[in-house]
Design brief:
Blueprint (H helix, E strand, L loop, with lengths): L2 E10 L4 E10 L5 E9 L11 H4 L9 E7 L10 E2 L7 E2 L3 E4 L5 E11 L1 H9 L13 E12 L10 E2 L19 E2 L4 E2 L5 E7 L9 E7 L7 E7 L5 E8 L6 E8 L4 E7 L10 E6 L3 E5 L5 E7 L5 E7 L10 E5 L8 E7 L5 E8 L5 E10 L1
Antiparallel strand pairs: 1-26, 2-3, 3-4, 4-5, 6-8, 7-8, 8-9, 9-10, 11-13, 12-13, 13-14, 14-15, 16-17, 17-18, 18-19, 20-21, 21-22, 22-23, 24-25, 25-26
Amino acid sequence: MTIRLLEHKTLYRDERFFSAFPNVVTLPEGDVLLAFRRAPDHRWMFGQANEEDFDSVDHWHFRSHIAVRRFDGGIEPIDEASSLPVHAEAGDQDANLFLTRSGKLLQYGFLWYPVTSVAAGRLEELGKPLYRRVGEGEGYLYWGSYVRSSMDGGRSWSPHRMMPAWPDAKPPAYKHQPKGAALRGRMVQLASGRLLVAGYLGDVCGTPECTAQLFMSDDEGETWELAPERIMMDQIHLQEPALALWPKGALTVFNRTDGNKDRLVIAQSLDDGETFDLPRTMEIKGHPYDPLVLPDGRLLLVYGYRHEPMGVRARLVEPGQPLQEAKEHVIRDDSPSKDTGYPSATLLADGRILIAYYITNETGVRGIEGTLIEID
C-alpha cells in the first residue's frame, strides 16, 4: 500500500488574514469547494515578522467568519475567496462541510461571542466566566454550535440553525447563551438517510472532562436531536470527534485528546450510534483527525502533527487492520510552527485525493495549502 505525493498547492493565503481549519468536499459536477475560518491578522502592519509570530496563536477575533473558494477538478481556482453570511452576534470558528446523497450541502461549526474590553472587565469583577488571554483586553464566550445548508452547491445559504443543548450539561452562565456542543469533524449518512455528527463539551454530568455525543437528523439537517449514549473517559478530554462508517458494519469515532499525550482515542458502535464500546487509546498522535473511507473499503486517516518535524501525516488502513499497525506516511514535515494541521481529505473525480490543511509560511502567515496524492 503506497501513498504517492504528487504536488503541494497553495489554496489560499493572504497576509491580511489568519486562515485556518479548512474543509474540502467534491461536488457532483467534479468541482471542489474549500471552506475555512478567516479573520483579520494585524501583523502585516508591523513589517518584518518577529520570532513570536510563528508560534503565536490567534484563534479568536471579532470578525471571525467562514470563507469559501471553488476549484475545478484539477484544483485550479475558479473564483476568489468569499465570505459566507455571518452570525448576528458571534464569530464562526470551524468550517466543516458535508454533501448529502441528495446533493444538499451542509456547513457546520461553532461560535465565539465577542465581549469588549470594558465589558470583559466588568464581567470578571462580577465573577462571571469568560475566556480572556493575559495581556489582551477583549473576552469571548462560547456561543453554541450550528448547521446551515445550501441547495445550489454553496452559492447561497440558509441562516445558522443552532444545535440543541445537552440537557445534563452545566447550565449556561448567561441568559441568552446557547449551549449546543462544539462541532468539528466529519459527518456521516447512514443507509437509512439519517445524518450523524459528533459534538464535544465539558462540564457534563458533573465531570470537567470534555465528552463526545452524537447528534442525529432524519430530515437532512433541518432539525437535530441527541443520540442516547455519551462517550467519556476519566481524566482524558475527548475533543474534535470525527466519524467514519468503517470498518464495514461499524461506526468509528476518532477523538483528538487532551491529557493523553496527544494520542488518538477511538470508540466503535455496531448499531448505528445507539451504543458504543469502551473508548481506547491508539499509539497515534494527531491534531486532529479526518477519516476518509475509500470506495474499496480502506480508510485514509489524515492528521496534523505538532511535534518535530511538524506538519501533516496519514495512514492507509485495510479493513479490520489495527490503526497503529498501518504505516505512517509524511505528507508535510516543513511547518515552521506548531500552529498547523486540521487536515481534510476528499476523493476527486479522477481518483486522486486532495488533502487540505493550514500551515505557516516563512513569514509567519497562516494559509491554506493542499497536497494531491495517489494511492495504490
